[in-house]
Amino acid sequence: YRVSGRKIFASLSGAADIHNVVCVVEGDPRVRLLGVAADSDGLHIEGEWDSLGMRATDSRNLVLEDVFVPAECEWIPTGMFDQAAARWPYFFMTLSFAYLGLMGAIMDATAEYLIGDGGPSARRSNPIKQQGWAEMNLTYDRAQALCYRVLGECGVDPDPQEVRRAWSSMVTTMDGAPHLASLALRVCGGRALLRPSRLEQFYRDARCGAAMHPWSMDVCLERLGRADLFDDATETPV
What we know:
By secondary structure, the protein is of the alpha+beta class. It has helices at residues 80-87, 94-115, 127-153, 160-188, 198-206, 217-226; strands spanning 2-7, 18-25, 28-37, 43-46, 61-68. The strands form two sheets. Strands 1-5-4 form a three-stranded antiparallel beta sheet, with no helix packed on it. The protein has a two-stranded antiparallel ribbon with strand order 2-3. Strand 2 (18-25) and strand 3 form a beta hairpin. Helix 2 packs parallel to helix 4. The longest helix is centred in the last third of the chain and has 29 residues, at 160-188. The two termini are 22 Å apart.
């Protein structure tokens, strides 16, 4: 293959040895999944990585200009990516699992603060902080419970209701993470705003998940708004 194009927000672009890209051949709508070696002629990375959050991912723009990719670097048969998207859409949820883990880390950091592990004394007896902690537990438990339900029922060729719950899980987690981080800052107070604080980093990271495609919050909300109302509501975005 000779590949030309641009991949915006290419995860680990500054560190990866091989870049996975999806592409199409002119006149053939089937999606191909290719692995492009980082040292290939015609491949370069552009821009600085100075993001709000997710800074460790180094996800700069990947630019390919007539890059040669051997046929053996097509990881799966042509058209299989399309089938995976249609018949196993759950792989679009994978980023939400990282954000559910981030929510768990926010809970742990806040608990340490309230119990007193991160400071001179415990704050857990303060009723205002207890109320905030209760809200945090509700937010986390909702996201975790729905995610675990989806994982428990996932399989090939899910029915429309199972796909709908997967979209709901994405929104619950990606919307819940920044809400949880905001609650944590409120509970833990001014010191949590300072750069050395883990919660300061968690807050910035949590803000980024909602925009990640292909199942961004906007995409999922649009599809949830059509679910059970239109025949095309179960189409899977690629």
